[in-house]
């Protein structure tokens, strides 16, 4: 909590134990090529990842239900609730991301993510914060492109705009792009860690992706974003647009009430739950046990 408040991020090596990760990591191949499949060219899906770092992103709900469930794992929800100081947290973004050494340039300039996470600007007021998390699905040591972050101790004085702070020699355009004091890059902290590591950071924290250098390497991670459910100005996607996919229904059928609440289901006892809505839900989600909401 101290690091979260003073630095704007907290790095938790191995936060998710292997026993809670394995079911998800075993299904990674439903989303992405293995390192070998990508590098020896045997996986026909490999082309998608070449030349664009963001092309390696899949969005929730995933082709693997285990990976979807991991996005709202109990420890993850507990961490979001503790950092946001609110038990009713909402998952407003969830991405799974594969990166492969040599596929493209993953080395980014320092930036904050808030432009794609809120229609306002970040706040340090308790109750008005959003938390993003990088969750490592494999070991991500320094040569596999861990994110680097800069403590608020070095950035609290920086204005909301510009938002991307380029290194000397890097070019960019637009009013959100500016030049960094090179000392900012010297102040970076690496988020490298074993599988299960969680890096939780606030939407106003400067950070950047780094290059994958390990020969034949692959990095698999999730990018999760949470807000207090009452924080209406922070969002990224609307889940309803995806809620008639098979992946969504499969996730709902296997998720707990707490997990579903984090996706927007009203809690048990809420006026939404009436005989009429319960009957409709039984038709929409025939394998969901509706007892908790009755
Ligand atoms: O994936 C990472 O390590 C960081 C990526 C990042 O900061 C971004 O794309 O905004």
Q: What is the overall shape?
A: globular
The whole-angstrom Rg is: 20 Å
Find the structural class using helix and strand composition. alpha+beta
According to CATH, the fold-level topology of the largest domain is Jelly Rolls
SSE pattern, N- to C-terminal: HEHHEHHEEEEHEEHEEEEHHH
Overall residue-averaged pLDDT value: 97
Instruction: Quote the beta fraction.
Output: 15-25%
How are the SSEs ordered, and which strands pair?
Blueprint: H1 2-7, E1 9-12, H2 18-25, H3 35-39, E2 57-59, H4 65-71, H5 74-84, E3 89-100, E4 110-111, E5 131-136, E6 148-149, H6 152-155, E7 164-166, E8 177-179, H7 182-186, E9 189-190, E10 198-202, E11 207-208, E12 218-228, H8 246-254, H9 257-262, H10 275-284
Parallel strand pairs: 7-8
Antiparallel strand pairs: 1-10, 2-3, 3-12, 4-7, 5-10, 5-12, 6-9, 6-11
Helix pairs in contact: 2-4, 4-8
Protein name: Phytanoyl-CoA dioxygenase (PhyH)
Which properties best describe this structure?
about 290 residues; alpha+beta; Jelly Rolls; 6-stranded antiparallel β-sheet; 3-stranded mixed β-sheet; 10 helices; 12 strands; about 25% helix; binds 2-oxoglutaric acid
Descriptive overview:
This protein has 294 residues and is an alpha+beta fold. It has two domains: 2-263, Jelly Rolls, CATH 2.60.120; 269-294, no CATH class. Helix content is 24%, strand content 19%. It is built from ten helices and twelve strands. It has a six-stranded antiparallel beta sheet with strand order 1-10-5-12-3-2. Helix 4 (65-71) packs across helix 8. It is globular. Residues 108, 113, 134, 147, 207-209 line the site of 2-oxoglutaric acid. The site of 2-oxoglutaric acid (AKG) has 7 residues, from strand 11.
């Amino acid at each position: 909590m101290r690091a979260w408040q003073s630095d704007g991020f907290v790095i938790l090596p191995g936060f998710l134990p292997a026993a809670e990760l394995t079911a998800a990591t075993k299904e990674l191949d439903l989303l992405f090529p293995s390192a070998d499949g990508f590098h020896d060219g045997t996986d026909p899906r490999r082309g998608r990842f070449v030349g664009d770092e963001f092309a390696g992103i899949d969005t929730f709900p995933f082709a693997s239900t285990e990976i979807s469930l991991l996005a709202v794992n109990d420890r993850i929800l507990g961490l979001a609730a503790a950092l946001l100081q609110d038990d009713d947290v909402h998952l407003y973004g969830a991405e799974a991301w594969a990166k492969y050494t040599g596929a493209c340039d993953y080395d980014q300039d320092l930036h904050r993510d808030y432009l794609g996470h809120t229609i306002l600007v970040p706040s340090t007021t308790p109750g008005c914060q959003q938390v993003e998390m990088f969750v490592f699905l494999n070991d991500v040591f320094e040569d596999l492109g861990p994110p680097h972050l800069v403590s608020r101790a070095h950035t609290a004085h920086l204005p909301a705009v510009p938002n991307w702070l380029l290194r000397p020699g890097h070019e960019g355009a637009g009013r959100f792009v500016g030049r960094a004091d090179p000392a900012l890059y010297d102040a970076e902290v690496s988020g490298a860690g074993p599988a299960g590591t969680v890096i939780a950071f606030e939407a106003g924290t400067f950070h950047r992706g780094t290059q994958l250098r390990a020969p034949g390497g692959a990095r698999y991670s999730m990018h999760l974003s949470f807000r207090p459910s009452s924080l209406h100005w922070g969002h990224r996607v609307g889940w309803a647009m995806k809620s008639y996919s098979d992946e969504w229904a499969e996730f709902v059928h296997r998720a707990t009430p707490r997990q579903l609440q984090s996706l927007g289901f009203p809690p048990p006892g809420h006026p939404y739950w009436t005989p009429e809505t319960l009957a409709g839900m039984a038709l929409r989600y025939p394998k969901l046990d509706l007892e908790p909401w009755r």
